[in-house]
Amino acid sequence: MLLFAAGRSDALKSFLVTDGVGQDAAFWRLAQALSALYAPGSEEKRWVDGVHGRRKGLGF
Asked: In the chain, at which end, N or C, are there fewer CB atoms within 10 A of the end residue's CB?
């Protein structure tokens, strides 16, 4: 979320793809749970939804 918020898309991609975090189903379950917990319209929800939205584009 913090990498997404800071606009560090290359670092986010590296974290998810190169470091392999995106291969872990628990990571995506956590992202979904956080999205459900954050208030609609909050920055945090936008960030976590942004990371989750990158999932398909990165091949996960």
From this structure: C
Q: Is the pTM of this model over 0.90?
A: no
Query: What backbone phi and psi angles, to 5 degrees, belong to 33?
Result: -65, -40
Q: How far is CA 22 from CA 7, 39, 41, 43, in A?
A: 18, 24, 25, 22
Residue with tokens 């379950």: 29
Residue ranges covered by each domain of the chain: 2-57
Structure tokens at 46: 């936008």
Q: State the average pLDDT over residues 15-32.
A: 94
Residue 5 is predicted with a pLDDT of: 93
Would you say how long the chain is, in residues?
Answer: 60
